[in-house]
Design goal:
This protein is mainly α. Helices cover 58% and strands 7% of the residues. The chain has two domains: 53 residues; 34 residues, no CATH class. A hairpin with a 5-residue loop joins β1 and β2. InterPro entries: BES1_N, BZR.
């Protein structure tokens, strides 16, 4: 059973739009899932650096990989993310 104070706190959270608080087990599962996702991404980036000859920073994200792939495909990627095809001089 929940106390009146706990019920009031839960109602205040619901009104504030915060939703429910995840349980300890859910938080642990989320941490484990995120750690695994980061480890997989790190292995992919390491392989691209070593075998794919990509110039990626030590701590890169998916955006850096996409930029390098676009450059390899012949596109120009500016610092702000603007992407366009290279114009060849005729």
């Amino acid at each position: 059973m929940t106390s009146g104070a706990a019920r009031a706190a839960a109602a205040a959270e619901a009104e504030a739009g915060l939703g429910r608080t995840p349980t300890w087990k859910e938080r642990e599962n989320n941490k484990r899932r995120e750690r695994r996702r980061r480890a997989i991404a790190a292995k992919i980036f390491t392989g691209l650096r070593a075998l794919g000859n990509y110039k990626l920073p030590k701590h890169c994200d998916n955006n850096e990989v996409l930029k390098e792939l676009c450059r390899e495909a012949g596109w120009v990627v500016e610092d702000d993310g603007t992407t366009y095809r290279k114009v060849s001089a005729r």
